[in-house]
Amino acid sequence: MSLPLVPLLAVASVLLGGWACWRRRESTDPTTTESPRNPASLRTDGGEERPDDGHPPDDRQVSEERRTDGGERRADSGSEGRVPVIGTLYGREHKTSKPYGLMRWVTSVDHKDIGILYLLFGLAAGMWGATDAMMIRTELFTPGTDVWNAETYNGLFTTHGLTMLFFFVTPVFTGLANYFLPLLIDADDMAFPRINAIAFWLLPPSLVLVRAGLLTEVLAKVIDAVGPRIEFLYALEPPTMGWTLYTPLTTQLANPQVDLLLLGLHLSGLATIMGGVNIIVTIFTERGQGVSWSTLDILTWSLLTTSGLILFAFPVLGSAVLMLLFDRNFGTTFFAVEAGGPILWQHLFWFFGHPEVYILVLPAFGLTSQILPKFSGRKLFGFKFIVYSTLAIGVLSFGVWAHHMFATGMDPRLRASFMVVTLAIAVPSAVKTFNWMATLWNGNVRLEAPMQFLVGGIGLFVVGGVTGIFLASVPVDIVVHGTYYVVAHFHFIVVGIIAFSMFAASYYWYPLFTGRMYNKRLGTAHAVLSIVGVNVTFMPLFLIGLMGLPRRSASYPVEFTLLQQIATVGAFVLALSVGIWLFNMVNSFRTGPVVRTPDPWNLKESNQFSREWQWFERRMSENLSNPDRALADGGRVDDGPDASGGDADAATGDAEN
Questions:
Q1: Nearest Cα to 403, choosing from 418, 413, 385?
Q2: What is the C-alpha separation between 291 and 295, in angstroms, rounded?
Q3: 3-class SS at 473?
Q4: What angle (nearest 5°) sits at the alpha carbon of residue 171, between those of residues 169 and 174?
Q5: pLDDT tens digit string along 361-412?
Q6: CB neighbours of 356 closer than 8 A, spacing ≥ 6?
Q7: Phi and psi dihedrals of 594, rounded to 5?
Q8: Residue ranges per structural domain of the chain
Q9: Is residue 547 classed as helix, strand or coil in its secondary structure?
């Protein structure tokens, strides 16, 4: 019934490809672009100016000419008393001449561009997944299924989990890695720029495949409103088997959307593996001369360990997903009930699934260790121990998967071994926590918005980590397994330190991204509401779980109503905090105070002016050293060695004076 969808997608792909080729030819038309053969026409950021004779343009023509990438020169910005905005989102760097606007973002292989694309994609997917969460909490406000039906509720928690894990957290951290890793190790770009671009562009179709049921349903209803009913668009229904895809339910569901979901997960896994390989090769082969293994920063160590986990974990998921596809469509029996297949699926899934938890949390640990000292006025306490603990987590994470399966009736001796390893992996996490506390001790702590989120995230992580130790104990886990206790434990980590580290990074690097400063009062309001929201939302779930209420049910006994309503109110507080953050980011980008110093956080005072800020300082000095030649997007014209002469020197001297 869903077969006509294939030719429809093929036709759409052909039309989209034709449009892209046409735009590409138009953008490379010799009447609108210029070959960068004349070195005198190159700017320091890689773009080109357009003088006809190769000589530097007269100052009177600066405001009248345009660059080939579409930017405009700013005429005598210094004389107007204005400081050009220097930030990546304003002054974009080009290694080669390329189209400007939409086609530039579609065809770019620059690590900063791709990093921004990852961040925007992760933000969009996160908002979608958060909408699922709000719909879930809305249904749970009352004991009965009053708002959505049970099938819709099942679809919501399925897509919520898959979207947030695969399309929100992982892309956001990959985006930060793409953007900052080359800056931190003094590299020109990622090792494989084209593979880097391919890895990103595999993600949007992956998300469409995973969530196609909702998209086709919305499209069908729009078409119904203006034209004839198209039946095959209703064939795909939102998946309802849960994000863990347990068999035999997943095998037996007739919904063709399940097949597309499995293909989407496989495709996203390939994209993640490409990104992981790129990060590893970049760290090993692209480090600058002054960057050795002993001087590597803590965030880079965390990204390296995370990428190693990706290489070992995601192929297992890809293999298991293909086996499940074969069982559904080709009559194989990998997960047949008669052969004990459902347990095999759990082993394969959780062999991927628990390292995936650390794939998500290790970059958050790295961000916390990277940013926390900057606002403590001290160097990171026990740097080597944090590096060793990161590597230890990476190794031990592959020996704890079966603690998700204590309730399946496995051999008690096997359960005991997994319990010991699960308890052991808490040790390196505790090492990090105590080292963060020691970094704060007697430090010059500045409670800026990044620091507020880091301190709040550490506190929430302690709650999530301690409750995880209880779940590692076989007797406790058997009692609370499958209850809201597990939901609360997991979300104190995912919404706590993981999301909080993202918010901290967004505030910390906001001046570098945009050249402007955010509204600090809104940043503080965001932090306070977020900390309150997480506690109000998920703390009641611990109590509900200890009282024995199973999770993943749209209805519940009436005696749990009050605690569920408190949790729902907390979820809306969290939603309000995210709204404040979005408003702050967008409005500050438009009207925020312009950053006039490359050290907005006074990092030089504590000798922690790290490499990405040193890059920002070099870029700002290059762009502002000659205000008469400044460009509208923050770039600077390089007239070449033969054309510079005394005017440039005089302009530089004036700027210094």
A1: 418
A2: 6
A3: coil
A4: 110
A5: 999 999 999 999 999 999 999 999 999 999 999 999 999 999 999 999 888 8
A6: 165, 313
A7: -70, 135
A8: 449-595, 598-633
A9: coil
